[in-house]
Amino acid sequence: MKFDLKTSVVKTREERLGTIVGWKTGKASELSRDSAFTCAGCKGNGGKRLCEDIGPFTQGSACSEQMVECQAGDVRDAVLVQHAPVGCGVSQVNNNSIYRNGLAIRNLPVENIKIINTNIKETDMVFGALNKLEQSIRDAWNRHHPKAIFVGTSCAAGIIGEDIDSVTNKLQEELKIPIIPMYCEGFRSKHWSTGFDATQHGILRQIVNKHPKKQEDLVNVINLWGSDVFTPMLAELGLRVNYVVDMAKVEELQQLSEAAATVGFCYTLSSYLAAALEEQFGVPEVKAPQPYGIAGTDAWIRELARVTHREEKAEAYIEKEHKRIAPRLEKLRKLLKGKKGYVATGSAYSHGLIEVLRELGVEVDGSLVFHHDPVYDSHDPKEDSLKFLVDNYGEVKKFSVSNRQQYQFCILLKDANPDFILIRHSGLASLASRMGIPAAPLGDEHHAVGYQGILNLGETILEILSHKKFHQDLAAHVKLPYTKWWLSQKDPYVLEKEN
């Protein structure tokens, strides 16, 4: 068994998958090729590990605890307790805005997130803070009477070795609801995606129904807070959607084990939960290319249909959608001919967006991904999203891995000189603007999914290109916060090599 649900601690992505957060700029095909190698002494990482370029400092990034916050903190009838200094709760403000917008997009009742911070202080670092944790869990129960309480750790809690399980086990017995410890200290893993796994591991251990009654038309869709594009797509096959984890209720998390299949919009997010549901509960993970572009969406629909025994409906849907999008797609290709794009997002999501850009006839010779998983938890080659991109949509000549480092992104953009960028984490968009490059921050992660997603993205690109003069004017009147020496560099990894 690959997934040990007896322990409350999830293995990190480095341990399971050999995840890296830095790789010199090269061809996408080279990274794909190197990901297939088995290095001597690295067999504990799924047989995979790439050598990575590690810099002498980190300018800014995210951490696993923040990802726990944006997943467990977004379960509608649960409460998240952050066992952390109050500073770790600063992102609650941003997450609350995202959560409320997501609820509105899905036509769900708009409310605030329910997150409590235990406010670990200096004295607590000496004497411990389990009493604060217990009080905070009781406060969560008395204020909200939730169906479950999640408890996320922090660097501070990890440094002093707080025995979180002792408190959660005691209060779960008393309150008679799942109280779920999640070990997500920022220093536990190099990349924040381990935080997704920590939340999903806790759900599998303590919420998912262990004796499921199968629902043959229910499909788990692992997502964040994007618009509801999967319900109409899956309805064409006679299937119902169970959206998880964000904005789900505890009851919907319980029925994860009852579904006929599991899918996702991005393998970075869905890898752990989908593979564990298959191994532990017999829910098939749809192992296919991600649903981006015509080739990827065709393959994804067909595999979902095969798993749920709806092949005829799938073929009728595919044929109908090809005909529907063809006229507008042809016009978009003419309007975008000669344009050059650049993609800077998470790993698997970036692969999908590049495929959509290529469908639109946009030139893409560069991309920055924030991390790279050489393999996903299923270890199935049909989920190798980077190889699918290269094999079906061609080479990406300047492919880079960097953990959201602005100083490197600046040099990469100067070299690529694109007409626009697609970006998921909008903090990098302002840098592009100051360089005269318009950006489309894709806050709705489902914007480019499926057949309609190709048209959606094309229209968005036309819209941001119409504002290019504004960004050029901005670039002419602002100064980048870097030395002339750094701006003269051609290699964004020069500090790593010196280090």
From TrEMBL:
Gene3D superfamilies: Nitrogenase molybdenum iron protein domain. The keyword Oxidoreductase applies. Keywords: Oxidoreductase. The gene is nifD_4. GO terms for molecular function: nitrogenase activity. The keyword Magnesium does not apply. It is an enzyme of class 1 (oxidoreductase). Pfam families: Oxidored_nitro. Its EC number is 1.18.6.1. This is Nitrogenase molybdenum-iron protein alpha chain. Residues 72-464 form the Nitrogenase/oxidoreductase component domain. Transmembrane segments: none annotated.
